[in-house]
Specification:
Distance between the termini: 10 Å
Radius of gyration: 15 Å
Organism: Candidatus Scatomorpha intestinigallinarum
Number of domains: 1
CATH class: Alpha Beta
Protein name: SGNH hydrolase-type esterase domain-containing protein
Pfam family, one: Lipase_GDSL_2
InterPro entries: Ester_Hydrolysis_Enzymes, SGNH_hydro, SGNH_hydro_sf
Number of helices: 7
Strand content: 5-15%
CATH superfamily: SGNH hydrolase
Largest sheet: 5 strands, parallel
Order of helices and strands: EHHEHEHHEHEH
CATH architecture: 3-Layer(aba) Sandwich
CATH topology: Rossmann fold
Number of strands: 5
């Protein structure tokens, strides 16, 4: 079974402790652990700093990137944190609206057999998270994206329910955080 994981640095496996932006080892990253399960072919389409594609050109490029990995049984999309970090006036509803616009096009063009929308882990106070707004809005994001998934008729999981540990920056998953996301994804995917 092929699973495409489309996301940001927490999908790519960014290790914030590294000096030059290295990845955690494959056996630490949540998608690397999924790939180690028998019968799974997991494609890591995570990119550091990625926000939800929100212009025709970015949506087209994202669809082309995902399309190169097809066919696949499942498309997993976990994005939204960078949208909050990069848009000072954004709230959870804005992120959900952006996600819905992107997914409406992607689902129409790519027609994946199954899509799992995952709300990213909520931020915590840390080196990258000094504003209370970021913590509050990232905590609210799960409910907003759950509604988006309902409207689109796709599956949903909220990483907040897996209580993943974050690193000192308040954004990126720690090794234990990757383990928690792996277990949550495994259950959400039924593998």
């Amino acid at each position: 079974m092929r699973i495409i994981c489309f996301g940001d640095s927490n999908t790519w496996g960014y290790d914030p402790r590294s000096y030059i932006g290295e990845q955690y080892p494959r056996n630490v990253r949540w998608q690397g652990r999924l790939a180690a399960l028998p019968g799974l072919d997991v494609v890591n389409c995570g990119v550091n700093g990625r926000s939800i594609p929100n212009t025709p050109a970015r949506i087209s490029a994202a669809c082309a990137e995902i399309g190169r990995c097809l066919p696949a049984e499942t498309l997993v999309v976990m994005l939204g944190g960078n949208d909050l970090l990069s848009q000072p006036d954004f709230c959870a509803e804005d992120v959900a609206e952006r996600m819905e616009s992107f997914l409406r096009v992607a689902l129409s063009e790519l027609a994946p057999a199954r899509t799992l929308l995952v709300s990213p882990p909520p931020m915590r106070p840390g080196a990258w998270v000094g504003e209370g707004r970021l913590v509050t809005e990232s905590q609210r994001l799960g409910a907003c994206l759950a509604e988006t998934a309902r409207e689109l008729g796709i599956d949903f999981a909220d990483a907040a329910e897996w209580d993943p540990e974050l690193c000192f920056d308040g954004v990126h998953l720690s090794e234990r955080g990757h383990a928690a996301v792996f277990e949550g994804m495994r259950r959400a995917l039924g593998v």
